[in-house]
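Give me structure tokens for this 359-residue protein.
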Amino acid sequence: MKEKKSILLTGAITGLIAVLLVHFGNPKNMGFCIACFIRDIAGGIGLHSAPIVQYVRPEIVGLVIGAFLVSVANKEFKTKGGSSPFTRFILGMVVMIGALVFLGCPLRMVLRIAGGDLNAIVGLVGFVVGIFIGVFFLNKGFSLKRNYTLSSFEGYLFPITNFLLFILLVAGFSMLHFSEEGPGSMHAPIWISLIAGLIVGALAQRSRLCMVGGMRDMIMFKDSHLLSGFIAIIVVALIGNIAFGYFKLGFAEQPVAHTDGLWNFLGMVIVGWGSVLLGGCPLRQLILAGEGNTDSAVTVMGSLVGAAIAHNFGLASSTSGASPNGKVAVFICLAVVLAISIANSEAFSKEKSPIKASN
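Here you go.
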């Protein structure tokens, strides 16, 4: 019962903070979006040159530092890594590309639903289909093999890197890039964004909030515990959006979204499938990285590079829809995830391992 209250409280607070971040300046239906914010950071540090999505988002820093501080305080910080790191890097890239075809991570997907964006319902269907495919391979013995205990310093590097990046942002470091228009130019004040990230990071670390894990557990074990957190996000964010006048029901003219149903669907198939193989959604990967999991840190770095590739090669969607290059990339990403799934599953590989992926 205590754990149930914890996940519901985490979801409720996350939904409320997401709406308040929009109130303070973030784009509508984008109080939190792990994929979008990592994309903005990639632009902010010069990894891509798309002028409308460049800003070092303090929310990401807050999520990592919040998880780090709470895990240290509760003696849960453990530095582990070495579980197929390059495969995880590639999966991080692929999941990011899928998310940018859809224009959002699983967290933003539910926030878009709470804002009345029906395109996100199409994405949700694709997301669930992707998770079903991922679970199929888990049942076939999919594993990225075991990880190993590493030195504590290795685990500290990712939180330290995020902290230093935040210092550069506050100092107005001249080499950082800042959008003057578009989604990247829309943001809450730095300290409000940081505090929001710290709160959600701390709560997510304690409750193990993860939408992919929630869907996976529901499919495999009929356990709705983790999933209830995201239901709480939708309910509270919906109430908040109605209260602030942000709610708009429909497909057309939704903020930072497009109406290409097939590509919304397929983009989130990639996100769901790839995230199951990784053992958690993009939010969960950030939290795990803050706890000292270097495999998750590698995954996040793969996401950062994936965001840069998506914009440098025109793979990311716009409000007009999926790009021609993005449509080709979707099928390449599906092929990559399929190849990784088959190569690492006992039922299809000569290598035998009893260890399954977990978040």
